[in-house]
Amino acid sequence: RRRPHPDRLGLEDPTSTSTSTSTSTSTSLGPDRTAQTFCSPHTSPPWSRSHAPLLLSWARGISIGATTLAIRLFMNTYGAYDIVDDEHYRYFLETVVAGVGKNAANNSNDDDGNDHNNNCNHHHHQGLITVSNHRSLFDDPGVLSCLLPLPFAIQPKYNRWGICSQEYCFNDALPGLIKGYIGAGQVLPICRGGGINQKLLLDFARHLACGEWCHVFPEGGVWQWDEVGGRRELPRGSVLRLSSDFARDDASKDFLTQGKTTTTTATAMTTTNDDDEDGDDSHDIGNEHATNRIVIPATKMQKSLKPSPKGKLKWGVGKLIAHAPTTPKVIPFAHCGMETLLPQDELTGKTKLRKNIFGGFPFFGISRDDGEHEPDNERLRVRIQFGPEITFDDLISKHEAKYGKLWKYSGKVTPEEELETGRSRGEFHKYWDSSKEERELYSLIAKRIEERMEVLTKEVHEGRWGKQKRKD
Predict the structure, then answer these.
(1) How far apart are CA 444 and CA 315, in angstroms?
(2) 451 pLDDT more than 90
(3) CB distance 339 to 136 below 8 Å
(4) What three-state secondary structure class fits 332?
(5) How far apart are the first and last CA of the chain?
(6) At residue 232, what are phi and psi to the nearest 5 degrees?
(7) Is the model's pLDDT at 125 over the cut of 90?
(8) Are 364 and 379 spatial neighbours (Cβ–Cβ below 8 Å)?
(9) What mean pLDDT comes out for the span 69-81?
(10) What is the DSSP string of 438-470?
């Protein structure tokens, strides 16, 4: 079948002479975009700042401004946060204010007024990806809203774009107003377990192609450990199951405490399928009704296992970096302290709001009438530390020298793709679906990020009560 030209697909042509097996070995059309939950039948492009609908601009300003002010008030009264004020943090600020902010301004000034995402077609600005550990369900906006000085933090153009698991942020049980408020806060849905070929990831990538700041939690879940969480190597015959799969917390705790096994189908237990896997270590049991050992993420049982040889982190961040039209800056940071607000059960992996959150005395340690202070390990005090920029030019160059130029996604959405419905899966999947060689590159990128995050996570825990800080 004749391959379509990338320009018609909103993708960058790798070069007409390239012999890259990375783009030629992947011929499946991939998943139907409209069959994915929370995915519109029509593609929604990344609106340029100047051509976003007026109501959307107002909604973004209200959502981001109100949320940031509320978080700052909470963190400066009920709790406290420290940001290590060093050259790495100042470099992050410079990148966001002078880099991402300038890109947003250019996106407004360079538009010709004919196409609301035209600027992304012709001007590929260097975007920013921040990566961090994931300590609680409140990290975004709890931590992300505290990173910038307040005058910048309340402006949408300086704020990050984030992704949130649809089961939490865009659940059908939530009122439409709540989901709209979250979406206006520059948060997009992602299908957890949907793999790296899901179209929702491409929707997120388009903003990076336009030079925006995008934040990713590459662990793919919440881990309240003193090290980077993520995948572990599962013993043969074991399966991975999310804590949310259990109907009752006491039932799952009894199951794990007593060491029982269960009889169930293997396909019901795994979190991803073979077509869309990005390095999951779930094993096929072979017997549909086999007796399996269940491993729940972020529990003592999982922590006791060896790290996966495929790496702890999800590979989606590697795909975002490898195929960006201009390789983005990647800045890591680590934080700790949010686990005191939303502690995680070590047996079940479930997250709960801490008891007596509004009782007793404030987290910031003011003395009670009896003269006692709240123990340090129970105070809501968040410490944040940035690391140096991570580069991947050597990995990408080595891959391209062996397999040819990588294709590049774009912020552009073509008229053909905008009209795409469930009747057609779209030719773009011949480029968007990742080949085996490309997955190997993603793995190398993710492992390099993991190495830097391990160092940062250890340092932020060791210096949690240090004196060096910034607070506003």
Answers:
(1) 9
(2) yes
(3) yes
(4) strand
(5) 59
(6) -125, 160
(7) no
(8) yes
(9) 90
(10) HHHHHHHHHHHHHHHHHHHHHHHHHTTT-S---
